[in-house]
């Protein structure tokens, strides 16, 4: 009975559920960025975390060191992130894949790009963490016994908007359907003469945009540093692995499940076992549900 | 395939090259007319927050020594390396600096790396200072003959915390630490020494994006005070943001790092640091500190704000200079013996009257606990000054 009460104490704590919502939105957005790259280019872009970090870190640097307004710095950060994503496709992924060197070579090249972005950010903007400078935040407020921080509402609204727009863009527009078709079977799309390069480029740019908005908004909680990049990449990848790739909403579910683990594993088992807990969750999915919760439907 | 390899090689070169940017040397080996100081600065790794200012302070102090004629007429030359606080790299960096003729080493990096390199340091037979380290294990036997620390050990931290808790009537204290192995090892001695209170240790992942669960556990336990024990500024700020939000009114304490990192204060949400009490190493009631601050401000500008990273780095160079002048040589063993003769060195850290002394059995320089200052943050997330609740006594 005591154990049950202790168990319920966590599950009925509204503060923890607010944390689940906030973290879940962030993880879901990173997962959505992965999803766009996978859908449009058939490729896991492990540079997503670095792109999100670079956008938030650059924006913060522009505000704190050069006095730019937050909205303007945010725009620069987003545009910079899109530019990095596009360069990553044009200068790294596409040339490697064009030579037929396979998926692994492209992944290695993108992995190197991730570390390059981390190092260059540290070299030019400093290795110390910077304060987050979200272009939109609200005054903290209370809901019952729980406090809602300044970044919760913005990240929820941005997540809802980006997922809805992504759904509409991919499902209801000709370009979206084209992008999905190319991602599903690039070779067939090439035979049919579809604009593969344009669709790939757009998917990388969209991923950069989503990652940037996620990074800039979430950094408002406790800042950002180059060290965040790798962790954010792994987080986004796990959100996609758990959610699956069957629908654009899959990363949202994956992000939410990951956030549940992220909040309740430390509560019940301690923060020092969080990493092990996440590994177990990931291994369970890899072993028993490698396609994630939402598996792609294949027409035979 | 060749082009691909070239691309990969280029990227790797760029990455590795960037990673090694902090490394360098000023060239030739010691030729007898110079004193060579090896400087290990973690300016790109997890210790960059404190190592970067400490490294700058050390170089500026050496520049001043050279401008004043050097040490016994010999110019001081710096050879520098960067181990990125990675214990696997520390021995290699030390060996490189020794091969470049270093007569003494100033290690501005994590204790973990130096702990790994203790036997190597013992064999090299040159004095090694850890100006800003606080882990007393570094200078404990065995293999501590040439190792010295200027920072106050964690056992002294515990004495100060206990007095502070007592002044608040706090009997039950939550101890929130990041669960990185180095931090857990670092905090072990502190936890053992905090036997004055009922301590509830809560671990959080060092790279956590959220500490709501950890703080909820703390809240459920109903502590009289919370001590955030980390050397990671991001973790500290995230913890303070969360504690401020979920446990308003509960006194909060932090370790030595945050007070020395004004850039990290800006990371905190508005008002999140208000009322926080943290360890610091400097107060402007110490005229020696004010003098040293003015010296650094000449180079760093009017906005310069002194902290213990600067003052302890300054003192390390001055103690080394004094020992070389006393011994008249840079021979490692003779220089080491001269360092152990340094007593009552008036420190530029801590409260007035704080001194540093070394000896055969005393490798921790601090004489007493008044090298520590408890400071309090205001509603603007700025350090307002010494905490009124308790002031360490130099006579204690």
Automatic annotation (TrEMBL), chain A:
CDD domains: TM_PBP1_LivH_like. Its main location: membrane. InterPro entries: ABC_transp_permease (IPR001851), BCAA_transport_permease (IPR052157). One of its GO terms (molecular function) is transmembrane transporter activity. GO terms for biological process: amino acid transport. Keywords: Amino-acid transport, Cell membrane, Membrane, Transmembrane, Transmembrane helix, Transport. GO terms for cellular component: plasma membrane. The keyword Ribonucleoprotein does not apply. It is a multi-pass membrane protein. It is found in: Cell membrane. The keyword Transmembrane applies. Coiled coil: none annotated. Belongs to the binding-protein-dependent transport system permease family. LivHM subfamily. This is High-affinity branched-chain amino acid transport system permease protein LivH. It comes from Nocardioides simplex.
TrEMBL record, chain B:
SUPFAM superfamilies: Periplasmic binding protein-like I. Pfam families: Peripla_BP_6 (PF13458). InterPro entries: BCAA_transport, Leu-bd, Peripla_BP_I. Signal peptide: none annotated. Keywords: Signal. The keyword Transmembrane helix does not apply. Belongs to the leucine-binding protein family. This is Branched-chain amino acid ABC transporter, amino acid-binding protein.
């Amino acid at each position: 009975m005591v154990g049950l009460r202790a168990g319920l104490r966590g599950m009925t704590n509204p503060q923890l559920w607010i944390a689940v919502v906030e973290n879940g939105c962030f993880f879901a957005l990173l997962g959505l960025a992965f999803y766009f790259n996978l859908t449009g280019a058939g490729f896991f872009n492990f540079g997503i975390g670095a792109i999100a970090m670079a956008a938030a870190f650059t924006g913060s640097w522009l505000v704190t060191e050069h006095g730019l307004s937050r909205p303007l710095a945010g725009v620069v950060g987003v545009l910079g992130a899109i530019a990095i994503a596009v360069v990553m496709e044009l200068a790294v992924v596409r040339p490697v894949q064009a030579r037929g060197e396979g998926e692994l070579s492209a992944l290695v090249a993108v992995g190197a790009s991730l570390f390059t972005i981390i190092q260059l950010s540290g070299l030019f903007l400093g290795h110390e963490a910077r304060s987050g400078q979200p272009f939109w935040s609200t005054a903290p407020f209370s809901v019952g016994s729980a406090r809602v921080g300044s970044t919760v509402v913005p990240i929820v609204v941005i997540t809802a908007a980006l997922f809805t727009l992504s759904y509409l863009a991919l499902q209801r527009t000709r370009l979206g359907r084209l992008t999905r078709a190319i991602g599903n079977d690039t070779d067939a799309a090439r035979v049919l003469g579809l604009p593969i390069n344009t669709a790939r480029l757009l998917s990388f740019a969209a991923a950069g945009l989503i990652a940037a908005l996620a990074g800039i908004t979430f950094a408002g909680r406790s800042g950002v540093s180059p060290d965040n990049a790798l962790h954010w990449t792994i987080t986004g990848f796990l959100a996609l692995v758990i959610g699956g790739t069957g629908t654009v909403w899959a990363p949202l579910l994956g992000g939410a499940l990951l956030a549940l683990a992220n909040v309740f594993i430390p509560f019940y088992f301690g923060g020092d076992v969080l990493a092990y807990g996440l590994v177990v969750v990931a291994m369970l999915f890899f072993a028993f549900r490698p396609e994630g919760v939402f598996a792609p439907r294949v027409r035979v | 395939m060749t082009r691909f390899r070239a691309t990969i090689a280029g990227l790797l070169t760029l990455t590795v090259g960037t990673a090694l940017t902090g490394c360098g040397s000023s060239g030739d080996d010691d030729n007898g007319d110079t004193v060579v100081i090896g400087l290990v600065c973690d300016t790109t790794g997890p210790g960059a927050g404190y190592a970067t200012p400490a490294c700058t302070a050390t170089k500026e102090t050496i520049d001043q020594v050279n401008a004043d004629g050097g040490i016994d007429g010999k110019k001081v030359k710096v050879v520098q390396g960067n181990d990125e606080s990675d214990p696997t790299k520390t021995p290699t960096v030390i060996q490189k600096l020794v091969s470049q003729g270093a007569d003494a080493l100033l290690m501005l990096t994590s204790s973990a790396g130096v702990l790994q390199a203790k036997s190597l340091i013992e064999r090299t037979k040159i004095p090694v200072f850890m100006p800003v380290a606080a882990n007393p294990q570094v200078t404990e036997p065995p293999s501590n003959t040439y190792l010295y620390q200027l920072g106050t050990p964690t056992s002294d931290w515990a004495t100060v915390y206990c007095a502070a808790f007592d002044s608040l009537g706090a009997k039950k204290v939550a101890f929130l630490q990041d669960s990185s192995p180095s931090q857990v090892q670092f905090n072990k001695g502190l936890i053992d020494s905090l036997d004055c209170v009922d301590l509830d240790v809560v671990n959080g992942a060092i790279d956590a994006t959220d500490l709501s669960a950890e703080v909820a556990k703390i809240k459920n336990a109903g502590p009289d005070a919370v001590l955030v024990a980390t050397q990671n500024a991001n973790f500290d700020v995230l913890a303070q943001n969360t504690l401020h939000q979920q446990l308003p009114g509960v006194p909060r304490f932090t370790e030595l790092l945050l007070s020395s990192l004004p850039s990290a204060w800006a990371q905190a949400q508005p008002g999140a640091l208000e009322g926080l009490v943290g360890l610091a190493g400097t107060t402007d009631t110490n005229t020696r500190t004010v003098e040293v601050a003015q010296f650094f401000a000449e180079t760093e500008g009017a906005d310069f704000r002194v902290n213990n990273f600067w003052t302890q780095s300054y003192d390390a160079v001055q103690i080394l200079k004094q020992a070389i002048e006393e011994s008249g040589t840079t021979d490692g063993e003779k220089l080491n013996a001269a360092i152990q003769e340094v007593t009552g060195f008036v420190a530029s850290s801590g409260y007035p009257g704080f001194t540093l002394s070394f000896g055969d059995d005393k490798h921790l320089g601090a004489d007493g606990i008044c090298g520590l200052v408890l400071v309090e943050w205001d509603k603007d997330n700025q350090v307002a000054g010494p905490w009124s609740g308790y002031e360490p006594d130099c006579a204690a």
